[in-house]
From TrEMBL:
Keyword tags: Cell membrane, Cell shape, Cell wall biogenesis/degradation, Glycosyltransferase, Membrane, Peptidoglycan synthesis, Transferase, Transmembrane, Transmembrane helix
Name recorded for this polypeptide: Cell wall polymerase
Pfam family, one: FTSW_RODA_SPOVE
Bilayer topology: Multi-pass membrane protein
Transmembrane portions of the chain: 12-35, 55-73, 79-98, 153-180, 187-204, 210-228, 235-256, 331-350, 362-389, 395-416
Organism of provenance: Larkinella insperata
Main location: membrane
Length: 426
């Protein structure tokens, strides 16, 4: 019998593919707009500019996509832990042989190009988690399996933070979305939300008020509990929860002042009060908001952004690429980009739910969580709602590592999904 594997590419999800192409094309145009100068008027295809280099990255990405679609879908399941191990080794190697760029030793430099292993660690981690959770007896309600998953996530995260790349490390928190979908008790996401909320509130509200609010909330829960349920155990649980929240509030100052590095402290201070250091740490956010706000409803027009042309916003073709969209295309253009991302995320989740194997479903939800986290943080920091932690906007920001990693992540999933469609067609 002749194998039908070569025809499996016909089963690729074309909706997702078209959304991907739209994102990459729009990203390329905005990278060009971010580096365009009226004086030089360089071409879109000038390889000496970021736009030309991005086009080269797009070309190599096409080759990677073809390779992914040709490789048998079982490769990703079979070699998941091997790929994970390779990414861990690359994170270790970059600590020794990596180049220091902007204070972060997380890059391998090859002439004029650089590769960041942290971007590909997300792929390795997603595959390893999918492979482990796919084991028949794995149950995320069990502490043992929770610890194994936590270890798989923590290992690359620790190595990334060791290279002083905080933003990339925080992305690994996105895996909690997938874990919750696969059975992780809801108490864990709830604890994470409470900790983050208390951390933010402590920065903007006097501690005394928070202590009073926590005690009042504990008493309210106690008295609202029916008498027959007021057991000693319940009282202890409420007391421990309230005490834990008080300790978190009390420890925020120590964490900010004694654990975080000076530049990280400044980013948090600027998030709370952008006017605290308008010419220093607050410069990026202030100029980003000015650029986006100046675009108003319809924008200033393609290549007409003044904030962009005069380099007011640093890193505008990478971390702050959304500024170019807001300034030149306005609220309407920004809404179109956000809507495009929403459709892409919804499509990935929809396909993940349709998967016939747990491996493919887990991987799909990991992909959705990673992309969602990047979008939320990148756009949030650009408009002043999130701290500036330096992570790219998927498929839009300039950079080969980012484009390669997101494209590989997406097309591995599309390859797994094409197998599902192929089996259904039979």
């Amino acid at each position: 019998m002749v194998s039908r594997e070569p025809q499996i590419t016909q089963n690729i999800d074309w909706v997702t593919l078209l959304l991907y192409i739209a994102c990459v094309f729009m990203g390329w145009l905005n990278v060009y707009a971010a580096v365009y100068s009226p004086e030089t008027q360089t071409s879109l295809f000038d390889l000496s500019t970021n736009a030309g280099k991005q086009l080269m990255w797009i070309g190599t990405t096409v080759l990677l996509i073809i390779a992914i679609l040709v490789i048998n879908y079982r490769f990703w399941d079979t070699f998941a832990f091997v790929i994970y191990g390779i990414t861990i080794l690359s994170l270790l190697l970059v600590l020794v042989a990596g180049s220091n760029i902007n204070g972060s030793r997380s890059w391998f430099k090859f002439g004029a190009f650089s590769i960041q292993p942290a971007e590909f660690a997300k792929l390795g981690t997603a595959l390893a988690l999918a492979r482990y959770i796919d084991y028949p007896n794995v149950n995320l309600t069990k502490l043992k399996d929770q610890l194994w998953c936590a270890g798989i996530i923590a290992l690359p995260a620790v190595l990334i933070i060791a290279s002083n790349e905080t933003g990339s490390m925080l992305v690994f928190a996105s895996f909690i979305i997938m874990l919750y979908r696969e059975g992780l008790p809801g108490i864990y996401p709830l604890i994470a939300i409470v900790v983050v909320t208390l951390f933010i509130l402590t920065l903007i509200v006097p501690k005394l008020y928070l202590f009073i609010a926590i005690l009042a909330l504990g008493l309210l829960i106690f008295f609202m509990t029916p008498r027959y349920q007021r057991s000693v155990q319940n009282v202890i649980v409420i007391g421990v929860a309230a005490l834990s929240m008080i300790l978190i509030v009390a420890g925020v100052d120590f964490f900010v002042n004694d654990v975080l590095q000076p530049h990280q402290q400044n980013r948090i201070k600027v998030l709370i009060n952008p006017a605290a250091d308008p010419l220093g740490a607050g410069w990026n956010v202030t100029q980003a908001k000015i650029a986006i706000g100046s675009g108003r409803l319809q924008g200033k027009g393609f290549l007409e952004g003044t904030q962009t042309k005069f380099d007011f916003v640093p890193e505008q073709s990478t971390d702050f690429i959304f500024c170019t969209i807001g300034e030149e295309h306005g609220f309407i253009g920004s809404l179109i980009v956000v809507t495009l991302f929403v459709f892409l995320l919804c499509r990935i989740v929809l396909l993940a739910e349709k998967q016939r194997t747990r491996f493919a479903r887990v991987y799909g939800y990991s992909l959705a969580g990673i992309i969602f986290f990047h979008i939320m943080i990148n756009i949030g920091m650009t408009i002043g709602l999130m701290p500036v932690i330096g992570i790219p906007l998927p498929f839009f920001s300039y950079g080969g590592s980012s484009l390669w990693s997101f494209s590989i992540l997406l097309f591995v999933f599309l390859k797994l999904d094409s197998r599902r469609v192929g089996l259904f067609a039979r």
